[in-house]
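Database export, one record per block. Field names are fixed; values are copied verbatim from the stored entry.
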Amino acid sequence: MKICRVWMENIPGSPYSQSTPHEEPKKDRESAEDYDVRTWRNKCTTDANGQVCAPAQALKQCIDTAAQKLGMKVPGRRGATYKPFFASGVICNADMPLANGRALTPAAAEQVTIYAHANGRRGSGSRVRRRFPSFPVWHGVAEFTIVDDIITREVFEHTVKTSGMIVGIGRFRVENAGTNGRFRVTKFEWEDMSV
């Protein structure tokens, strides 16, 4: 079993935008438009200190998707790929706090306004204006536990680096034909753990 800390930073021109559901109550007689204008920053995921974070599950899914797309074969496993080993053998230990020289908070977000499907489903017809938080510059350190020794350091590092280019994180990420959420890895730090 191994721990890997991964230093990530956005690729220039690829901001990180969030769309976390929230339960901010609506005010009396407040229109959907006014509600969105008032609460768009609530779409940020934050930790107990109010720092914006990339959710651990989003980072896990980003890497799992890259492992699937790469389709790398496991030596000596008769054509088996690494996909199921990443799915069951890699854990993202916690949400990744984001910074850009200092901790990012919802107050630091830039507003992005798009025309989205009213019910959130493509092809549904009517569109409405929606606002989302966006961070043009960000970096963070994510920590992963690799419990399956079939996943070597080289395979893990290649998959994580690729995930930042072809999958990404957040709203309108490259996996979904967007341009947001791409990142590059600046450092890996490994620690072997005894079970």
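Remark 1: The first helix runs from residue 32 to 39.
Remark 2: The radius of gyration is 18 Å.
End of record.
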